[in-house]
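I am still getting used to backbone structure tokens and would like to learn alongside you. To get us started, please write out a protein record for me. Start from the sequence, derive the backbone structure tokens from it, and show both lines together. Once you have written the record down, we can walk along the chain together:
***
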Amino acid sequence: MSTVDGRLRQTLLEKAGFATVVELVAWRGEATASRGRRALAVADSLAGHPRITALSITDGAGGHPAAAPERVAARYLAKGQELIIHVACRDHNRAGLEGRGWDLASQGLTNVLAVSGDFPHEAQAGLSRPVFDLDSVGLLQMYAGLVSPPFFLGAVVNNHKRFERELMPQYFKLALKIRSGAAFIISQIGYDARKQDELLRYMRLQGLDVPVLANVCILSPAVARLFHGGGIPGCVVTDELMAIVERQAASPDQGRGFFLELAAQQVAIARGLGFRGVYLSGHHSADEVERVLATADTYGGGEWQEFARELQFGWPDGFYCFEPDPDTGLNRDALDPAYLASMTVLARQQARTRVPLGYRLARATHAVVFTPGTPGFRLGAHVFGAAERHGLGRPLHVLEQAVKVPLFDCRDCGDCSLSELAYLCPESRCPKRLRNGPCGGTDEGRCEAADHPCVWALAYDRLKPYGEEEKMLDRPAVITDNVLRRTSAWANSFLQRDHQARRHQQDRLP
């Protein structure tokens, strides 16, 4: 087994320089096919390059079948190349992910980027069925204690969101990812320097002290059109930027010089803002990577500030949680006045009048009946305990479904998270069944895989009037127990068998 020298850890954790990570998008088909040959040619030319801290190999990017990243990595690990392996939860259950973790460690592949994974889009003989037995948070928690020495774990945050209800849950999930084991963070693709600045300010405000890599994607007309049309979940090219792209596409070089300089300016902005490195994502050639890095080296120390004023391709009505700084075009440390005003007692009281009546009734019922320690909870435990002893559990389960199916579109998981998600069912309302915050693929608050609002955005809007939005993910990771499926969630709650009971039991341990 060949191993690498931990250059990525050293660069990020010990602040030993500015990291440059280059993404290698694993291809569909055999390595000897044209796609594989082209991708390997790029990787071959970058492997061992003194400016490249690590190569990062994707795992079914975009939800498309692709070569396994471990197979691609073997070619470069033997040469001592530092590598990051993406591990997506889409295609494996937790047993498969655990076994995969052991395999990675045994091969010396100890830098892992944990992702939930894009929803599948194509496969042989139709759409494949995704797994999502764990999400990125659950995977981080699993891998954090899986092997010794431990993995160096990374995660992604999408800070380029339009609306408050989709941006703030991203930040809350970021904190949960770090608590669950993420040691470095990569931002999602976007072209708004103010959003990049906001991410770092938010992390400082919350004491989230881990290194962050700024995502820099070298655009082309085709890639920009794909992003603009929502073809890659979570990647943003706004109308304003798209208009510039189309003008540049009409130039003799089809905009190549402009796109490379734009990427170089993003590298300079990342340095100036205080990112610990850059993550060059997407499809690119070795020459393009070289040119971007060389161009970025030519900029003076203060030029990044001018670039940041110009790189402002957000939405005109986009939400920012910090107050704008007109002198820099970025942010001040103070929270945005309109955001602060929305959190006053009066504003929250007014917002409660718009909360659905069903949600208010569900909150009241949970407080009286399903909260441990209350008389209602003790009565429920007595009733369900007696029912199970006398063989009457099934009728109560049927009664439960008669209530929960029409009210919540319950899918009978047996390990209920309704109270943790503002009484919205993640099993029926989220195609990925995410219990630990939203994925990064929402498009203006709507699900990447289904034509409806993201369930986590809806939950945020329900929780904020009660001042509970910041607590929505201020808890340990939720990992469901599949043995409880098709059993009574009420019984499992009252009789202390669900994930909330396990959490309380762990909290009581010395």
